[in-house]
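Hi support team,

I've been running sequence recovery on a batch of backbones for a student project. Most finish fine, but this one hangs at about 90% for roughly twenty minutes before it completes. I'm not sure whether the input is malformed or the queue is just slow. I've pasted the C-alpha cells below so you can try to reproduce it. Let me know if you need the job ID as well.

Thanks,
M.K.
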C-alpha cells in the first residue's frame, strides 16, 4: 500500500538523504491520515514536529503537549516520542536528533536542505481514503455556503453573513481557513474581499476554503435579491465558458501552464481579455487552499487523482469549485445537485455549473 510515509521514504532514497523533518500543519495531517498538531489556528506550523528516516518515525513535542498528541492523534501509528520541557528549546532537540544526518525540511531550518516543491509534491496525488474524506468535506463546505445564501437577509452585515457560514462548518469540526464575503458594489470593486460591517442590499458573494484532516475544499456562490441587472445576466454566461474550458482541460498529463493559457484565450474570446489580471486563477489544491498558484509559464503537469480549484472571474461574478482529476473524467467535488445551475454546452457535452441564486 502506497502511504504517505512510503512516499517520504522513497524520496529519502531517491535524493540520497537520511531523513525529512516536518513542521507544517498540513504535512502532519498528510503523514498521519488526517490528524492535527496545532493549537493556534492562524499559524502554518504546529506544535508537534515529525522526523522520518528509513527506519524510524519520531514525534518531537513538549511534555505539555505530548499526552494529548499521543492519545488523540498518534496512538497506534508507531511514532517514537521525544519530549523536551515546554521551556526548553525544541529546535535544539531537533538539531541533536538530526546531527550527522543529511536532512530535508518543509520549513526553513538552519543546516537542513530545502527541496521546495519536490517535497510538497509528494502529497499531490490523493489516495482512495483521502478522496473519500475530500468528498465528504467538499459536500459539507458547499452545502454550508449554499444554505447560507438561502438564509441570509437583506440588512445583514458581511460580518454576520460570515459568522452564519462559519457556524455551519465549525459544528462539524471543519476549520474555515478562509471566509470571504462581499455585497453589492464591493462585489464589483474587489476580487478578494474580506468581510466588513457593510450591510447587504441586493447582491452577495460568499466564499469558503474549508479544512479538515488537512484537506481544503474551496467553493464560491452568489445570491441576488430581485431581478439580475443586464450586465450580470451577460457576464455569468461568459464566465461559464471560461470555467468549463479550464476545468475540462485539467486532465492527466496536461501542462498546468497550458490549462492556464487556455483560460486566458477564453477570456479574450468572451471579450474580457485583461480580466484575468485582477485575480489569480487558482491551481492545484488538496492540503492547501492552493498548493501553488498557476502563473504564466508555471512548471508541472496535471496528475491523476490530483485536486484543483480554478477561480476565473470577470466583473461582478466568479466561479470556484473543487475538482478531482479522474481517470475518465473530472469530478466536481463541490457540486451538490441542490443548487441553481446554468446548463452549458462544451465540446458536445452538457454541464451544470453554478448559477446566481435569485431571491
Amino acid at each position: 500500500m502506497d502511504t504517505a510515509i512510503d512516499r517520504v521514504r522513497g524520496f529519502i532514497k531517491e535524493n540520497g538523504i537520511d531523513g525529512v523533518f516536518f513542521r507544517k500543519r498540513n504535512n502532519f495531517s498528510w503523514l498521519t491520515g488526517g490528524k492535527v498538531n496545532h493549537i493556534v489556528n492562524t499559524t502554518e506550523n504546529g506544535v508537534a514536529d515529525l522526523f522520518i528516516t528509513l527506519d524510524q518515525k519520531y514525534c518531537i513535542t513538549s511534555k505539555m503537549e505530548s499526552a494529548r498528541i499521543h492519545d488523540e492523534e498518534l496512538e497506534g501509528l508507531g511514532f517514537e516520542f521525544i519530549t523536551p520541557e515546554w521551556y526548553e528549546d525544541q529546535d535544539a532537540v531537533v538539531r541533536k536528533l538530526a546531527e550527522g544526518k543529511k536532512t530535508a525540511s518543509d520549513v526553513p531550518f538552519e543546516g537542513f536542505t530545502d527541496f521546495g516543491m519536490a517535497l510538497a509534491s509528494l502529497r499531490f496525488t490523493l489516495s482512495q481514503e483521502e478522496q473519500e474524506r475530500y468528498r465528504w468535506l467538499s459536500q459539507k463546505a458547499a452545502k454550508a455556503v449554499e444554505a447560507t445564501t438561502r438564509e441570509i437577509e437583506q440588512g445583514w452585515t458581511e460580518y454576520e453573513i460570515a459568522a452564519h457560514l462559519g457556524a455551519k462548518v465549525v459544528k462539524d469540526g471543519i476549520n474555515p481557513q478562509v471566509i470571504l464575503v462581499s455585497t453589492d458594489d464591493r462585489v464589483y470593486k474587489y476580487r478578494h474581499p474580506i468581510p466588513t460591517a457593510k450591510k447587504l442590499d441586493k447582491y452577495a458573494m460568499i466564499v469558503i476554503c474549508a479544512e479538515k484532516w488537512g484537506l481544503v475544499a474551496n467553493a464560491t456562490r452568489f445570491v441576488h435579491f430581485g431581478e439580475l441587472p443586464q450586465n450580470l445576466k451577460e457576464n455569468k454566461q461568459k464566465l461559464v465558458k471560461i470555467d468549463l474550458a479550464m476545468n475540462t482541460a485539467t486532465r492527466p498529463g496536461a501542462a498546468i501552464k497550458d490549462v492556464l493559457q487556455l483560460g486566458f484565450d477564453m477570456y479574450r474570446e468572451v471579450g474580457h481579455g485583461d480580466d484575468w489580471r485582477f485575480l489569480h486563477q487558482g491551481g492545484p489544491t488538496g492540503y492547501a487552499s492552493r498548493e501553488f498558484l498557476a502563473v504564466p509559464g508555471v512548471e508541472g503537469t496535471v496528475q491523476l487523482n490530483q485536486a484543483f480549484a480554478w477561480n476565473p472571474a470577470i466583473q461582478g461574478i466568479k466561479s470556484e469549485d473543487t475538482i478531482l482529476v479522474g481517470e475518465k473524467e473530472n469530478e466536481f467535488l463541490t457540486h451538490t445537485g441542490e443548487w441553481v445551475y446554468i446548463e452549458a454546452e462544451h465540446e458536445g457535452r452538457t454541464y451544470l455549473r453554478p448559477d446566481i441564486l435569485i431571491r
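--
Follow-up from support: It reproduced on our side and the slowdown came from queue contention, not your input. The chain has a mean pLDDT of 97. No action needed from you.
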